[in-house]
Amino acid sequence: MNILAPFLSLALVLASASAEDDGKLTIPIPSSVQATIAREKGDAGTVRDFRRVNEADGTTYIIGIVVGNKSWELSLDASGRVMRKRLDAGDSGPRMVRIEALPAAVRDTMQREAGAGVLTEIEHIERKTHYVGEAKLGKRKYRIEVDADGVLLNKEFIGEED
């Protein structure tokens, strides 16, 4: 019976711990990460999703935020520094369209150039002019991409200067 006593006490401790648990999974979030999230979303934004990723070089926090009508994906390191901020543009890849859906000028040009041939596939590819720059913030370097309307598309940490 003395051999079973430690196991029974352990079972009682685990049972009491699970009775106190409300069933929710909690992830401890460093205050520096919380402060960065609050700053990035502002008063009007909301957090859409949150996850912690353990990578070879440390813990990374991936946060989806919505500010106004735009969705952003943030990648923060364990100290709350922004490693990447990217506009979530959804699926911006090519999509198939029918000839009837094309603007008249595009449809006319397609048909003229196809001649007697049959247009079988038409892809609609949206590409906007955008600008890419590098910024140095202290010793940290970032690549920043902005579209022609001034909307931030991507801000990504690219390394530290020696």
The first-level CATH class of the largest domain is given as Alpha Beta
Helix content: 10-25%
What is the mean pLDDT? 80
Write the H/E string, N to C. HHEEEEEHEEEE
Largest beta sheet, briefly? 7 strands, antiparallel
Whole-number count of domains: 3
CATH topology type of the largest domain: Nuclear Transport Factor 2, Chain: A
The end-to-end distance, rounded to whole angstroms, is 65 Å
Task: Estimate the global geometry from the Cα principal axes.
Answer: elongated
Structural class: alpha+beta
The helix tally amounts to 3
Query: Mind telling me the C-alpha Rg?
Result: 26 Å
Strand content: 35-45%
The appropriate CATH architecture of the largest domain is Roll
The largest sheet has its strands arranged as 1-2-3-4-9-8-7
Low-confidence stretches: 4-20
The tally of beta strands, per DSSP, is 9
Describe the protein's architecture and organization:
With 162 residues, the protein is an alpha+beta fold. It folds into three domains: 26-88, Nuclear Transport Factor 2, Chain: A, CATH 3.10.450.40; 91-126, no CATH class; 128-162. The protein has three helices and nine strands; from the N terminus they run H-H-E-E-E-E-E-H-E-E-E-E. Strands 1-2-3-4-9-8-7 form a seven-stranded antiparallel β-sheet, with helices on one face. The longest helix has 17 residues, at 4-20. It is elongated. The model is unreliable at 4-20 (pLDDT under 50).
